[in-house]
Amino acid sequence: MSVLVNKDSKIIVQGFTGSEGTFHAEQMIEYGSNVVGGVTPGKGGQKHLDRPVFNTVSDAVKETGADVTIIFVPPAFAADAIMEAADAGIKVIITITEGIPVADMVKASNYIKNKDCRLIGPNCPGVITPGEAKVGIMPGFVFKKGTVGIVSKSGTLTYEAADQVVKEGLGITTAIGIGGDPIIGTTTKEAVELLMNDDETKAIVMIGEIGGQLEADAAKWIKENGNKKPVIGFIAGETAPAGRTMGHAGAIVGGSEDTAQAKKAILKENGVHVVDSPAEIGKKVAEVLG
Prior knowledge:
Number of helices: 9
Number of strands: 14
CATH topology of the largest domain: Rossmann fold
Helix content: 25-40%
Order of helices and strands: EHEEEHEHEHEEEEHEHEHEHEH
Strand content: 15-25%
CATH class of the largest domain: Alpha Beta
Strand order of the largest sheet: 3-4-2-1-5-6-7
Largest sheet: 7 strands, mixed
């Protein structure tokens, strides 16, 4: 079992022939992900990386049966790309694009609410199920198969946590980078819930950061559902000054509950094993799974 993506996922790349799309599609294909084609309007009928190019997502789905897409479309057009994928019946829409205007994301997230799909991101590193499918921009070699799920707002810390877990002799079921924008498709709680319901996942690493309520909501849900699996938590941004956007567009401390200290307290109250430094994640996972 894995969540969101696996060896059977049929993946297309939106923005396939652009420089980012090309570079990361090559890496994904090299990793062994089942990339069945891509979309670049106006270039339909061509071949790229030995895969067919389509003018629309709907054409790609008809021809290839694609059920997962990864979006490398410039910010101004990315919300339309998300809505187009949802319309075409894609089940998992992974959006890497950073800097999508918030107003566009409001429109896109309302539009896809009643569609049978799940949006990951935007402004995220993607999703990887080690040994099966990498749908994102993460360095695949860091991830080895195992029993620890990862949910993270931060791209870099996703790889850091995976590296530490692997060095402890453990491995990863699926790592989900949810993205750091104010409006994202899948919340921390929803990603944690997917991993809680996955039989192979024995523990979950939850990496958050200052700003917003996502980690608090997840922690409360974990406790309400009986702390079924151990969750190891880290919150980035301990030293960030209040009221300033830090790194991610969503990382701005609005109220007192948005600070790293407050979030860590909420996590602890709800039974999450909190570490104070990202360097302690691997050790804590090994200790908890003991």
